[in-house]
Amino acid sequence: MTSSAWVGERVRLRGREPEDWEAFHAFEEDSDAIRNGWRLAPPTSVARMKKELAESAEEEPDLDEFSLVIASKHDNAPVGSLNTHQVDRVHGTFAYGISVGTPHHRKGYASEAVVLLLRYMFFERRFQKAEAWVYGSNEASLALHRRLGFVEEGRRRRSHFANGRYDDEVLFGMTVEEYTERYA
């Protein structure tokens, strides 16, 4: 039996498919979860969501800067997504974002998806450091990153506005050596 670098015990990281539109459209209904991830936007129509998913399913993937679906290994249904961004090949750093739909919180999907992503970026793409920005009020994500072994490296005070209040952004980082010590 062959194994995939993209499959863990609970999750499978995969490309977006046009039929994923319904799950992602439903995830948009939780405004607090959306605010925790980035910013609240006006609702997306079903037609627009279908078009976005169909177009992204057809895009040629980039090896370093990409967006993936976090799917349940059990039934391949979307439970969230993660993406890489701010990729700096010169310095060997990248940032990532992760979002798991509210019905799927606290089931281990996020932690396993992050570990799979880091393994790929560190051991296949030769990056040496991962970064993640987390809003100071997002207690679940702060706890996740600490539990995964990320180091809090800094804080941008009052740099995010949502739901009538300003929030700090907390920078977390993990080096390839820290990852290897913990997960390899």
TrEMBL record:
Keywords: Acyltransferase, Transferase
Source taxon at top rank: Bacteria
Gene3D superfamilies with a match to the protein in the record: 3.40.630.30
UniProt key word Transferase: yes
SUPFAM superfamilies attached to this UniProt entry: Acyl-CoA N-acyltransferases (Nat) (SSF55729)
N-acetyltransferase domain sequence ranges: 11-177
Pfam families: Acetyltransf_3
GO function terms (MF aspect): acyltransferase activity, transferring groups other than amino-acyl groups
Family classification: Belongs to the acetyltransferase family. RimJ subfamily.
Protein known as: N-acetyltransferase domain-containing protein
